[in-house]
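[Automated response] Your request has been received and processed.

Submitted sequence:
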Amino acid sequence: MMTTVTIPHDLATAIIDVVNELASELDLHYEDDDLVACAPTIEKMERLVAMLRQAGYECPETYQHIVERYHLSLN
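Generated structure:
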């Protein structure tokens, strides 16, 4: 059974803004080979975005981009 998550819109918007900003900074400052150092941060972002998605919110493209780069760098 899937649990429904409710996040107030203003809180979700603020979280999305922070995730967007953080993903942008990681993308700007880390080369692919160095992204492994960001593992704890990216894992926390993934948990947070999973909750946002469960509540019906979309994640920023910058987040999707940095997570894709991160997972590709692990291979």
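Summary generated for your ticket: The first helix runs from residue 9 to 29. The chain has one domain: 9-74.
If you did not submit this request, please reply to this message.
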